[in-house]
Amino acid sequence: MIRLHHIPGSRSMRVLWLLEELGLDCDLQNWSLTDGSLRRPDFVAMSPAGRIPALEIDGRAIFESGAIIQYLTERQGQLAPAPGDPERAEFLEWIGFAETQANIIQALNIHHIFLRPEAARSVPLMKLDTKRLAVTAAALDRHLTDHDTLLASGFSAADCMLGFNIQALFRFLPEGDYPNLTAYRDRMTARPAYRRAEERGGSDAIYAQDFYEVPHD
Ligand SMILES: N[C@@H](CCC(=O)N[C@@H](CS)C(=O)NCC(=O)O)C(=O)O
Questions:
Q1: What structural domains does the chain harbor?
Q2: Which atom of ligand 1 is nearest the CA belonging to 52?
Q3: What keywords would UniProt list here (predicted)?
Q4: What pLDDT digit, counting tens, does each position of 79-121 carry?
Q5: pLDDT tens-place string over residues 16-42
Q6: How far is 160 from 80, CA to CA, in rounded Å?
Q7: Which residue's alpha carbon is at the smallest distance from atom 1 of ligand 1?
């Protein structure tokens, strides 16, 4: 039995999408970002920082989405260049890049959505993080000028690592500024496995607005 600890619209979407691409069934256990349950000892025993996702598989629980993605590709021998393959370094780079970008999205989620009261927000930090996110989106957009997928050899689990980012980043950046990234998002979200994951995982539980403008000082 494989069990994914999940919150709709969060990084666990990366894992759910990859499980669907690999044809692996899983049991889903839903959690909440706001009810304090991620700090419960039973959850922290699986994910010590109290973060989603965690994956129960092969008699243990694995935390950190990048580690889970690599574990699953190695276990199944699919959707990743093997060690020694010329594309291996690039695969690992994109796994790390996706998490760098996700951390900026997370900071913006905190500023725009979770931090209360509004007076506690820092407009300079919101501007800075929006600019830092734009740098990562522009880098992806440049890369995707001549790539349909992150790796030249085709779809891989590195694309799944962007599975939470490609939806969330356009809450803070205008789609029109990133035509290649927008087209990539549309290609990836049209994949049957992505659609199955979205249907199973439930609709995003984080955003109440389509777009969040940086407030004025
Ligand atoms: N590097 C971790 C980050 C996990 C993470 O921060 N997940 C968010 C949801 S997308 C979370 O659980 N946040 C709860 C919190 O920050 O308390 C990973 O990739 O698994």
A1: 3-76 (3.40.30.10), 88-201 (1.20.1050.10)
A2: 12
A3: Transferase
A4: 999 999 999 999 999 999 999 999 999 999 999 999 989 889 9
A5: 999 999 999 999 999 999 999 999 999
A6: 11
A7: 64
